[in-house]
C-alpha cells in the first residue's frame, strides 16, 4: 500500500511539473508563430515571387547551448580544471547548471546525459582529446583531458634517437 501511495504521489508531481512545462511551451509556441508570420510578411513584401515555404524547416541543434561548439568548449575547460577527471554524471550536472537547462523528467535528463554529453565525450575520445579511465574500486569511469606528456618509453626512444643523431653528427659510425 505504501509503495502505491508513494508512486501515485510521484506521478501526480510529474503531472504538475509537465503542466507547468506545457504552459511555458504554449507561450513559446505562440511567440514563434508570431515571429514566423512577421517573417513571411516581410519576405512577401520584399520578394513577391518567392514562396516563403520554399526554405523548408531547420531544426536547431544549438538552441540550449548558445553558438555551435559552446558545449564542447565548456566541457573541455571543465575537464582542464579537474585534472583527476570527472564522472559522466558530474559533467552532465555541471553542464546543465552552466547552460541553465531544466529537466522535467528523469528521462529528459538521461537523454541529455547519454545522447548529448556522453556522445560528445566519446567523439572527443576518438579525436584523442580526452580519455576515460576506471575509478578505483568502482565501475564508474572518469573522463579527463588526455595527457600530451610523453611516456617513459617514449622518452627512452627519443633519447636513444637523439644520441644516435648526435653521434652521427660528430662522425661516430655507431
- Overall, the morphology is flat
Main β-sheet, spatial strand arrangement: 1-2
Structural class: mainly alpha
- Count of discrete alpha- or pi-helical segments spanning 4 or more residues: 5
Which range best describes the helical content: under 10%, 10-25%, 25-40%, 40-55%, 55-70% or over 70%?
55-70%
**Domains counted in the coordinates: how many?**
2
Number of DSSP strands?
2
Taken as a percent bin, the fraction of beta residues is 5-15%
Tell me what the structure shows:
This protein is mainly α and 174 residues long. It folds into two domains: 2-55; 70-145, Arc Repressor Mutant, subunit A (Orthogonal Bundle), CATH 1.10.10.10. Helices cover 61% and strands 6% of the residues. The chain has helices spanning 2-46, 70-80, 88-98, 106-126, 152-169; strands spanning 130-134, 141-145. The protein has a two-stranded antiparallel ribbon. Helix 3 packs across helix 4. The longest helix has 45 residues, at 2-46. It is flat, with a radius of gyration of 27 Å. The termini are far apart. The mean pLDDT is 85.
SSE topology:
Elements: H1 2-46, H2 70-80, H3 88-98, H4 106-126, E1 130-134, E2 141-145, H5 152-169
Antiparallel strand pairs: 1-2
Helix pairs in contact: 3-4
Descriptive tags:
Arc Repressor Mutant, subunit A, 2 domains, 61% helix, 5 helices, single chain, 174 residues, flat, mainly alpha, two-stranded antiparallel sheet
Short description:
The chain has 5 helices and 2 strands. By secondary structure, it is mainly α. It has a two-stranded antiparallel sheet.
